């Protein structure tokens, strides 16, 4: 069996892939101690961190939803076999302390941490790993809860479908002993190890699945540094320190409270008045002011997202590619960046961020050209315009700090084409649920990368496998599907890149979305916080964070 190191992922090179396996020294990584936390010194500062955000979690069953507000919380409760480095997608040990992969990339063996327990006191072991992965893969599994409306679209897109599907790559999961589990693939998967670090594929207590059944989404039980206490919908989620956490000296905090404050300015006021400790969705115009204010500090995430307008291409008139192209020509992205992002963004031409493997630099964004937009609408038979509902997010997101203002800019631009865009908004969880069901005409949303791999963007947002679920445009193109499927099962990074580049050319021509921006998300907090590192995925563990007295 071959053992080799997986290449490192830097923030600037998020997706350079080669076949290999990654192992970690138990005495040198933060997965097995406190060496990476301020020199390993224990702190008695404790306290509860109050993290304010724009919207509530959709569910605390991480694998069945795709929103960042859910994973931000579940990241504290649950853990994955592989973890990412604090500030990049470099692979590090998690619940697996080491792993091997064979030369063909078809057999992965994970060696698990010993002595780890779930929050309910039951042991973490290889059987728990097998139960969780089989739950997501098999719609008929007793813990899949499909009759209660659960679905695992991200599992399907990342692993080529579900049990029984031709493309499903996980052929077998074998428990070798309590702390050794083997995954056998039917064909290579270029992103397999990166997938194992995604927060969607963290491990739930099998005993909790049996106890709570379909109510597991409100009763999360993992191995993570914080334990679930309570959830008051649209208000707060309270977590407490896991006193039996398997990593010595962690977490530093006594607890974390995730508080919902929908309005950006209200969150900032709460921070300035000392009601909260940390907030996301900092308006770019406020960033400079915060930097000069005593007692406060700012944080920036590495850009790793796309904010976009999506068309429901199953509805008229957006089933006509000429209408979709016309609207692409009618949006002035630089105006949006200057007015809303304060320069903390760059125009997007593709769904994939620029530093990713396979980003097609030859794809040129649709030029802002109202004459061309009018010409295309005339050709499509909509020269006199039309009326539709523009679904607008009710909360700020890392890729869009002020959705309402952005919607108004878009509404004004389309009015020049005699197009009436009625701005519609809904409560966040309802918004996400209903766009997955296809109620929308056109909608505002975005996507943040969680594993450093281009397939997570293209496969999730623009493949048929993402319907229903993450592909809320309902875009289905056989040629694109074939290219993405081949790229998914290709190991050579150059071959993968070429396939993704070809797919982006077709997507650009078909225009199922208006890629607006790749944003630099900003956060703000009190300057007594230490150990907080914003992760590019937008969901970071808070186990190293502490608040000085």
Automatic annotation (TrEMBL):
PANTHER family: OLIGOPEPTIDE-BINDING PROTEIN APPA, PERIPLASMIC BINDING COMPONENT OF ABC TRANSPORTER. GO terms for molecular function: peptide transmembrane transporter activity. Residues 90-466 form the Solute-binding protein family domain. Pfam families: SBP_bac_5. It comes from the Bacteria. Residues 31-47 have a biased composition (Low complexity). Residues 1-21 form the signal peptide. GO terms for biological process: peptide transport. InterPro entries: Peptide/Ni-bd, SBP_5, SBP_5_dom. Keywords: Signal, Transport. The keyword Transport applies. GO terms for cellular component: ATP-binding cassette (ABC) transporter complex; periplasmic space. Belongs to the bacterial solute-binding protein 5 family. Gene3D superfamilies: Dipeptide-binding Protein, Domain 1, Dipeptide-binding Protein, Domain 3, Periplasmic binding protein-like II. This is ABC transporter substrate-binding protein. Residues 27-50 are annotated as: Disordered. The keyword Translocase does not apply.
């Amino acid at each position: 069996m071959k053992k080799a190191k997986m290449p490192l992922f830097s923030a600037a090179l998020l997706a350079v892939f080669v076949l290999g396996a990654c192992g970690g020294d138990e005495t040198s990584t933060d997965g097995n101690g406190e060496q990476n936390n301020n020199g390993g010194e224990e702190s008695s500062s404790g306290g509860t961190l109050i993290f304010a955000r724009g919207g509530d979690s959709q569910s605390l069953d991480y694998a069945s939803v795709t929103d960042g507000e859910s994973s931000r919380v579940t990241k504290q409760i649950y853990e994955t076999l592989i973890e990412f480095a604090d500030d990049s997608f470099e692979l590090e040990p998690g619940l697996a302390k080491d792993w091997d992969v064979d030369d063909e990339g078809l057999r992965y063996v994970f060696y698990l941490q010993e002595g780890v327990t779930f929050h309910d006191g039951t042991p973490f072991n290889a059987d728990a790993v097998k139960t969780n992965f089989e739950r997501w893969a098999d719609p008929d599994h007793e813990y899949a809860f499909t009759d209660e409306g659960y679905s695992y679209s991200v599992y399907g897109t990342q692993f080529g479908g579900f049990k029984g599907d031709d493309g499903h790559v996980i052929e077998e999961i074998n428990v070798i002993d309590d702390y050794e589990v083997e995954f056998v693939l039917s064909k290579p998967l270029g992103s397999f190890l990166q997938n194992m670090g995604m927060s969607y594929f963290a491990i739930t207590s099998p005993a909790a699945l049996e106890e709570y059944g379909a109510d597991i989404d409100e009763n999360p039980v993992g191995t993570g540094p914080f334990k679930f206490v309570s959830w008051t919908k649209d208000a707060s989620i309270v977590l407490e320190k896991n006193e039996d956490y398997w990593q010595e000296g962690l977490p530093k905090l006594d607890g974390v409270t995730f508080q919902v404050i929908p309005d950006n300015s209200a969150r900032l006021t709460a921070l300035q008045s000392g009601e909260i400790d940390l907030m996301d969705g900092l308006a770019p115009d406020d960033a400079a002011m915060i930097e000069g204010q005593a007692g406060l500090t700012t944080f920036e995430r590495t850009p790793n997202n796309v904010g976009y307008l999506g068309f429901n291409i199953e509805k008229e008139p957006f089933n006509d590619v000429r209408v979709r192209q016309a609207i692409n020509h009618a949006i002035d992205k630089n105006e949006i960046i200057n007015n809303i992002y304060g320069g903390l963004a760059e125009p997007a031409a593709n769904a994939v961020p620029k530093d990713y493997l396979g980003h097609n630099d030859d794809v040129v964004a649709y030029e802002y050209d109202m004459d061309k937009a009018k010409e295309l609408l005339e050709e499509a038979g909509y020269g006199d315009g039309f009326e539709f509902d523009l679904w607008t997010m009710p909360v700020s997101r890392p890729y869009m700090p002020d959705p309402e203002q952005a919607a108004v800019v878009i509404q004004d631009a389309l009015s020049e084409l005699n197009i009436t865009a009625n701005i519609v908004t809904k409560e966040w969880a309802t918004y996400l649920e209903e766009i997955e069901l296809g109620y929308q005409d056109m909608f505002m949303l975005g996507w943040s990368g969680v594993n450093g791999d281009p397939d997570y963007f293209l496969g999730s947002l623009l493949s048929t496998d993402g319907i229903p679920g993450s592909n809320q445009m309902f875009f289905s193109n056989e040629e694109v599907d074939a290219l993405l499927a081949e790229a998914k099962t290709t190991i050579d990074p150059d071959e993968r890149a070429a396939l993704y580049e070809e797919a982006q050319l077709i997507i650009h021509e078909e225009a199922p979305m208006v890629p607006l921006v790749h944003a630099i998300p900003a956060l703000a907090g009190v300057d007594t916080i230490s150990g907080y590192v914003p992760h590019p995925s937008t969901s970071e563990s808070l186990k190293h964070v502490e608040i000085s007295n």
